[in-house]
Structure of Transcriptional regulator, GntR family:
Amino acid sequence: MEFNNNKAIYLQIAEYICEQILLGKWKTEEKIPSVREMAVTLEVNPNTVMRTYELLQTKNILNNKRGIGFFLSDNTIDQVKQYRKTSFMENELPNLFRNLYLLEIDFDELKSQYQTFVTQNFND
């Protein structure tokens, strides 16, 4: 995984985990890699992964079953969408709106580009 210098690593790992869930690679109530396994896979300090897992626990995305490991919650997809939507609306959307305004891009043009993106990347 390539890390971006503009955002804390534990938040980038949280985004990675959320993406795995939304893409269906990790299933609801499924056990996820241990802190150590994830740290080795991503080549980061285990404390960083633990911080990520604690964040995702507070967002009700993960549950810790003592002695067994971390599992996805039973309503994990809804929780992930809510967490990611809030993060997007607060952190990324203002910059997008600023660029749309400065570059004089209207919503029709944006919609066309969005539809092309979806067709090329997500329609099988």
User: Anything to note?
Assistant: The first helix runs from residue 9 to 22. The chain has a mean pLDDT of 93. The CA atoms of residues 95 and 101 lie 10 Å apart. The chain has five helices and two strands.
